[in-house]
């Protein structure tokens, strides 16, 4: 059983990832923490509470930090043209949601849960890395107590998606991401190198909704706006960035990885760019020295990943 804390900014592709984690029989979702990215923190938290209520997910939900790790940076405009004004494709969301958030801040929730389960927690982070960075800053020792960190973010051998070099989750808080990638824990980065190859077609999702009942119907409804955005980019479907990171937790064999220290460019025209120094290459002394080797996903069996997601969403099993 994988005990997972899901750090998320729902977010349409976040919603699919959440339902995958909830339904996968080998995943014990022990907490949800909210972060910023697809929408501001009050909206991503409301959306997490809404989805948890709709899908009967009982894991506690803790609200994350709504600003950036570096106090000198400010939040920019939100990507409402991708995720809708409400972060969930402009579906109607009830004004009052009975589920309430945990009173703790997300980073404190992470610290408490990791310390209560030493060596057992996998952190799956699919928004900005702000909460993970705050947890490391407040309690650096947790790096040695976490089992694994899997993040959706970054772009190594392919272009970014918010600038020619930067992917949105990393670009949204570069200093936080650099701290997370250089901390002494094991990080696997599931970035655009692999997620852009993984497209769920609109027609497939509609079929899943028919077979999967109300839970998947809600997912299908809230995904339509996002599919419209991706339509002219990848065909009539959606890139399922965040679900790829969740699949990695249970099926790392479906990915090809490359090991090496990673840094994030902080500032300048390449702000938010992720750069790995492959272990097999030698260079003169530099900024990658002395940092742990992390894994970058550079290959994916996209058909197998999509197949697993289909079966887990509909049947709740990994057949
Ligand atoms: Ca996300």
Record keyword descriptors for this entry.
alpha/beta; binds calcium ion; 12 helices; Inosine-uridine Nucleoside N-ribohydrolase, Chain A; 319 residues
How would you describe this protein?
The chain is an alpha/beta fold and 319 residues long. It has one domain (2-315): Ribonucleoside hydrolase-like (Inosine-uridine Nucleoside N-ribohydrolase, Chain A, Alpha-Beta Complex), CATH 3.90.245. It has helices at 12-23, 41-54, 80-83, 106-116, 130-138, 168-171, 174-182, 192-195, 202-212, 214-234, 241-250, 302-315, and strands spanning 2-8, 27-34, 61-62, 121-125, 148-152, 187-190, 199-201, 237-239, 255-264, 274-278, 293-300. β1, α1 (12-23) and β2 form a beta-alpha-beta unit. The chain is globular and about 55 Å long. The mean pLDDT is 95. The structure holds calcium ion. Calcium ion binds next to loops.
Number of strands: 11
> Within the CATH hierarchy, at the fold level, what is the topology?
Inosine-uridine Nucleoside N-ribohydrolase, Chain A
How many helical elements?
12
At the fourth CATH level, what is the homologous superfamily? Ribonucleoside hydrolase-like
Bound molecules: calcium ion
Oligomer: single chain
Largest sheet: 9 strands, mixed
Question: β content, as a range?
Answer: 15-25%
Mean pLDDT: 95
Structural class: alpha/beta
Shape: globular
Give the distance, in angstroms, between the N- and C-terminal Cα atoms.
Answer: 16 Å
CATH architecture name: Alpha-Beta Complex
What topology, given as strand order, has the largest sheet?
A: 3-2-1-4-5-6-11-9-10
Helix content: 25-40%
Q: H/E element string?
A: EHEHEHHEHEHHEHEHHEHEEEH
Q: Output the CATH class name.
A: Alpha Beta
């Amino acid at each position: 059983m994988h005990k997972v804390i899901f750090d998320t900014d729902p977010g349409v592709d976040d919603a699919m990832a959440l339902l995958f984690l909830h339904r996968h029989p080998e995943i014990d979702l022990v907490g949800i923490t909210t972060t910023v990215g697809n929408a501001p923190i009050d909206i991503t938290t409301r959306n997490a509470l809404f989805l948890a209520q709709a899908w009967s997910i009982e894991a506690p939900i803790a609200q994350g930090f709504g600003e950036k790790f570096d106090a000198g940076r400010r939040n920019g405009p939100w990507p409402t043209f991708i995720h809708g004004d409400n972060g969930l494709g402009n579906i109607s969301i009830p004004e009052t949601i009975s589920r309430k958030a945990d009173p703790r801040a997300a980073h404190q929730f992470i610290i408490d849960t990791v310390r209560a389960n030493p060596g057992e927690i996998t952190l799956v982070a699919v928004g900005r890395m702000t909460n993970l960075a705050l947890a490391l800053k407040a309690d650096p020792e947790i790096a040695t107590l976490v089992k694994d960190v899997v993040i959706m973010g970054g772009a190594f051998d392919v272009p970014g998606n918010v600038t020619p070099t930067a992917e949105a989750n990393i670009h949204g808080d570069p200093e936080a991401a650099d701290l997370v990638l250089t901390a002494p824990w094991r990080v696997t980065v599931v970035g655009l190198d692999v997620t852009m190859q993984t497209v769920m077609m609109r027609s497939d999702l509609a079929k899943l909704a028919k077979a999967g009942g109300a839970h998947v119907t809600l997912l299908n409804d809230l995904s339509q706006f996002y599919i419209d955005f991706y339509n002219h980019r990848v065909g009539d479907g959606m890139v399922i960035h965040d679900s790829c990171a969740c699949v990695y937790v249970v099926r790392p064999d479906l990915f090809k990885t490359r090991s090496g220290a990673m840094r994030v460019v902080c500032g300048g025209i390449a702000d938010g760019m992720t750069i790995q120094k492959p272990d097999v290459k030698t260079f003169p002394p530099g900024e990658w020295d002395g940092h742990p080797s992390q894994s970058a996903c550079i290959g994916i069996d996209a058909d197998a990943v999509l197949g697993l997601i289909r079966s887990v969403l509909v049947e709740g099993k990994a057949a």
